[in-house]
Amino acid sequence: MEEFRYSVTEEWEDERIDKCITVLIDFLSRSYMQKMIREGRVCVNGQPVKANYRVKAEDEIAFALPKPKEVDVLAEDIPLDILYEDDDILVVNKPKGMVVHPAAGHYSGTLVNAVLFHCKGQLSGINGVLRPGIVHRIDKDTTGSVIVCKNDRAHQAIALQLKEHSITRAYRAIVHGVLDREEGTVDAPIGRDPRDRKKMAVNRQNGKEAVTHYRVLQRFTAYTYVECRLETGRTHQIRVHMASIGHPLLGDCVYGPKKCPFPFLMGQTLHAMTLGFLHPVTGLYVETYAPLPAYFEKLLGIL
Fold this sequence. Notes:
This protein has 3 domains: 2-65, RNA-binding S4 domain (Structural Genomics Hypothetical 15.5 Kd Protein In mrcA-pckA Intergenic Region, Chain A, Roll), CATH 3.10.290; 68-164, Pseudouridine synthase; 170-270, Pseudouridine synthase (2-Layer Sandwich). 18% of the residues lie in helices and 30% in strands. It has helices spanning 17-24, 30-38, 111-118, 152-163, 237-244, 294-302, and strands spanning 2-7, 42-44, 47-48, 60-65, 82-85, 89-94, 143-149, 168-176, 183-187, 190-193, 196-202, 211-219, 223-230, 270-278, 285-289.
């Protein structure tokens, strides 16, 4: 079993425990945690609680995820926004709230379930039964472009480009604060946060190389609209890097303020807009563009 322990800080005072946990651990769904709580698997200060329990500062939350059981990942007829497709690869514009591949609490409704149906099961098998065709991922609440590989040859070629940092990946984000520089680079290794193993952080002792280039697109009174280009692809890279320079992403309750000033915004304001790579068979350069989602356009209009 994988065990989790948290000490509640003042920012989470009076928040429901099910919401608190699923914001801290973004791959767990609220419905899954509510089920865990009903089964008495979640304890606060050593005692089981109900899902509507309001946490208090210094509460100690503890629970363990059951060992994942072998499951059959089912094809599901879920609409896909396809940006590019041929016999070898598929590029999909992933919506907010969709998990890329099955994991604890998310065995249906994922991008994998959708592409299994769309591709009639013809996907690369390198990453196993839970992640067929998946060569990279983006967070549940990040929108935008994801490459899916239909065969092992394509998977190996795209994986090599990711390893060599030769894939073009440009994101759009809105960050807290007003950036004074027009552009810049954050070159800081990322690894597990030594104080919280479920979070990432700039970790100069045990982290892996991570480089993010950013440039200002528009400044607002209290926020900045930016483009971020990845050289590397570490977990939560843009979220951690921008927070490390004092400009966390708007809506990111893990690496930024716990309370979001825009109630309709669920999760970080981050969109994988441009994706460019060499086709694994033809060798030609392919670049896709995912238009900004409605929630992002709404925020820009408000700001």
